[in-house]
């Protein structure tokens, strides 16, 4: 075609374009085989040309009409309908869309991370589950994994009818939840599966969810700064453009004068869209927002493994998640049921971290119209993805049957803590939700109960069922005052009700503050306190909470150290070690800072060690004592020829670097005969990143060097004592 003809055709096409009409469209959440929510108004929406009239007809209902607004968006709200179908939905504008095989029933949003995403194909007895999956009244649609920096309006997906051929790809938890409800209620169940393995809770939260949560205001500010509609964003962008204009002026001058020019100012990271999977609101925008305001009965949620180290902060994030979704849906406080994550080993992680997270998940039940399914009895400690999804789905369904569908005769929870009472040397723990009665699910003595008294640590308790209570005693625990249950990452306790629903982790009572130095170390009464420091205050400048160095008069013949440490959810670990004095200068027996001038690598005699740390050698008059006190750097070679020390591992015999006085820093007491570090405090200048430990550490060190573990302790206290010489 000649070039002039091509030009004319292009001009004609451009002239005719304003007369062309766009097809009316629906979001993909509307499709053939879908389930629409019963007993509430049915929102139907989509897009067309601005000003175009759209007609919507569902089954025998009268036609509803809407006019597309200036952006092309339109919406109608059809009257509430009872369960039923199949029906046909027709949407007519410039074109006609026809969707068929539509059911009216209950729609549940299924969300979370991998344990919700986990398919029927991967669960226990998957082949049997598929064979039996002849439930055409159950329908499923999966939302693709797409994060977004702003709310998406649609996604690619299609509804599937449940059958042996299709069910293998359904969310397993969602399917078994739906199957139980479908059997009990005899109504269609629709599942919207919007889940993504490995994701934290934060990206699923709607921006509005953060607004009322004081603990999450920092996140709200960060999210707001990326919103182009917000004033903080507009100000930040304006400031950047001002900088860019100034640079452009300099660039013009540099070009004219042929002089060098600095690079243009970088676009601020703080206002870039949060559009990656780990960023707050990114999955809400990409995978939840396109569903709003599709009618739903409620939501089920299985997530937490990726947040399990956050403790009680997770309860605040649950408030943001649930509150945010309810706000954007404008369907009131719709039901929200969730799964307490299962026991799992989490590598070498502190075993008390996971119980604190369980506690946070349980605390989220204070949010109205929520419920939690406990699954510690069907876990796989070596697999973060327990394959028994049948019981997980059923337990969520029991919550829904009881709380949403009003079947008050359905027992939907295992025993939950109600109150604690003291009866002499016995604790009585009363439970709610006992159902038909408390039982041991395996017929064995009850497990995972521990109690504590004023002069004891947490001790395994003998537990006996007494009606709606469990009575707890333990040898050596007099006047018990607190209890904890299932307080370990591996805990799979056997307390349940007769309906087979297990009790979840909890703790109750007033945990006593025990001074183990006074309770466990008789010889300490002959010593005087020289220094006392909360090691949480470590830093470049070491300031003692108590410093008696200037007031203790006279000589001393023994020096002692008492270190007590506690991790969240665990008992206190302590060590007391005393020795013949290795110096007569009291200013050099504390943390060996540059200011103290302390620098020792020498044996110490007549060592006494008292400790409750398993495996640590204890006794009186021990030989083999040695210390390494300095502010210098150091390495693993055993340059001082300390007996039994390694040349390759950092341990109780290392080489001080005399050229780096202001170095890493080492305060260690060792026992060369036992080949052990008794205790270590290293790198105190790092504060929360310091190294602290009792006994030997693992890996490439035995003396806690490079572990940076100080922040893992909720209690970390060092006391230094001397015995006066009379």
Question: Strand-residue fraction?
Answer: 25-35%
Supply the helix-strand structural class: alpha+beta
What's the pLDDT, averaged over the residues?
94
Alpha carbon gap, first and last residue? 115 Å
Large-scale geometry: globular
Provide a count of the helices.
Answer: 12
The major sheet is characterized as: 11 strands, mixed
Low-pLDDT residue intervals, each spanning 5 or more residues:
1-20
Rg over CA atoms, rounded to whole Å, is: 33 Å
Count of β-strands: 37
What does this structure look like?
- The structure is a single chain.
- The protein is of the alpha+beta class.
- Among the domains are: 231-271, no CATH class; 416-509; 520-724, no CATH class.
- 18% of the residues lie in helices and 28% in strands.
- It contains twelve helices and 37 strands.
- Strands 1, 3, 4, 6, 7, 8, 9, 10, 11, 12 and 13 form an eleven-stranded mixed beta sheet that branches. The protein has a seven-stranded antiparallel beta sheet with strand order 25-24-37-26-27-29-30. The protein has a five-stranded antiparallel beta sheet with strand order 28-31-34-35-36, with no helix packed on it.
- Helix 4 crosses helix 11 (389-403) and helix 9 (313-329) runs parallel beside helix 10 (353-363).
- The longest helix has 27 residues, at 231-257.
- The termini are far apart.
- Mean pLDDT is 94; it is low at 1-20.
């Amino acid at each position: 075609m000649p070039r002039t003809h091509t030009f004319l055709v292009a001009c004609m096409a451009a002239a005719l374009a304003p007369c062309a009409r766009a097809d009316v469209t629906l979001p993909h959440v509307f499709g053939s085989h879908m389930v629409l929510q019963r007993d509430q108004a049915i929102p139907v929406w989509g897009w067309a040309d601005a000003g175009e009239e759209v007609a919507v007809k569902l089954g025998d209902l009268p036609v509803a009409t809407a006019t597309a607004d200036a952006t092309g968006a339109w919406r109608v709200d059809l009257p509430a309908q009872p369960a039923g179908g199949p029906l046909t939905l027709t949407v007519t504008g410039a074109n006609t869309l026809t969707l068929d095989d539509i059911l009216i029933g209950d729609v549940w949003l299924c969300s979370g991370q991998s344990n919700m995403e986990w398919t029927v194909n991967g669960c226990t007895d998957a082949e049997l589950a598929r064979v039996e999956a002849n439930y055409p009244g159950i329908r499923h649609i999966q939302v693709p994994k797409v994060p977004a920096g702003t709310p998406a309006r649609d996604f690619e997906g299609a509804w599937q009818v449940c059958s042996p051929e299709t069910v293998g790809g359904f969310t397993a938890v969602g399917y078994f939840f739906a199957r139980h409800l479908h059997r009990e209620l005899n109504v269609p169940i629709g599942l919207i599966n919007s889940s993504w393995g490995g994701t934290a809770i934060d990206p699923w939260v709607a921006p509005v969810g953060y607004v009322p949560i004081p603990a999450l205001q920092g996140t709200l500010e960060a999210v707001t700064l990326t919103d182009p509609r917000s004033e903080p964003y507009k100000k930040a962008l304006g400031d950047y453009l001002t900088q860019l204009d100034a640079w452009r002026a300099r660039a013009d001058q540099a070009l004219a004068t042929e002089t060098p020019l600095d690079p243009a100012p970088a676009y601020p990271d703080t206002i870039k869209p949060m559009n990656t999977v780990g960023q707050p609101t990114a999955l809400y925008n990409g995978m939840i927002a396109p569903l709003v305001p599709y009618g739903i009965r409620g939501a089920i949620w299985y997530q937490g493994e990726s947040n399990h180290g956050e403790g009680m902060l997770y309860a605040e994030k649950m408030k943001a998640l649930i509150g945010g979704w309810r706000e954007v849906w404008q369907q009131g406080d719709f039901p929200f049921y969730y799964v307490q994550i299962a026991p799992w080993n989490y590598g070498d992680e502190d075993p008390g971290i996971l119980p604190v997270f369980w506690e946070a998940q349980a605390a989220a039940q204070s949010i109205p119209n929520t419920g939690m399914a406990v699954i510690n009895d069907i876990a796989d400690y070596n697999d973060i993805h327990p394959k028994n999804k049948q019981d997980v789905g059923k337990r969520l369904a029991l919550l829904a049957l009881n709380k949403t569908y009003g079947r008050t005769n359905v027992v939907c929870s295992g025993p939950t803590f109600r109150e604690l009472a003291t009866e002499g040397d016995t604790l009585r723990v009363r439970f709610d939700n006992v159902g038909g009665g408390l039982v041991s699910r395996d017929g064995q003595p009850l497990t995972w109960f521990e109690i504590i008294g004023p002069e004891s640590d947490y001790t395994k308790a003998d537990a006996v069922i007494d009606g709606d209570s469990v009575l707890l005693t333990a040898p050596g625990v007099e006047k018990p005052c607190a209890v904890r249950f299932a307080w370990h990452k591996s805990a799979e306790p056997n307390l349940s009700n007769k309906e087979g629903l297990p009790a979840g982790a909890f703790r109750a009572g007033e945990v006593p503050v025990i001074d183990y130095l006074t309770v466990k170390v008789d010889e300490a009464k002959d010593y005087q306190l020289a220094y006392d420091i909360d090691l949480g205050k470590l830093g470049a400048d070491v300031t003692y909470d108590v410093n008696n160095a200037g007031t203790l008069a006279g000589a001393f013949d023994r020096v002692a150290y008492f270190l007590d440490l506690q991790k969240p959810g665990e008992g206190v670990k302590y060590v007391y070690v005393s020795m013949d004095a290795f110096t007569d200068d009291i200013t050099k027996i504390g943390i060996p800072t540059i200011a103290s001038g302390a620098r020792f690598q020498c044996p110490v005699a007549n060592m006494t060690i008292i400790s409750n740390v398993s495996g640590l050698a204890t006794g009186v008059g021990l030989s083999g004592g040695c210390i390494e006190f300095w502010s210098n750097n150091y390495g693993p070679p055993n340059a001082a020829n300390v007996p039994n020390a390694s040349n390759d591992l950092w341990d109780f015999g290392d080489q001080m670097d005399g050229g780096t006085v202001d170095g890493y820093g080492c305060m260690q007491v060792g026992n060369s005969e036992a080949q052990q570090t008794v205790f270590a405090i290293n790198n105190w200048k790092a504060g929360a990143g310091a190294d602290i430990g009792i006994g030997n550490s693992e890996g490439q060190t035995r003396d806690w060097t490079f572990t940076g573990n100080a922040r893992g302790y909720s209690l970390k206290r060092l006391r230094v004592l001397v015995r006066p010489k009379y």
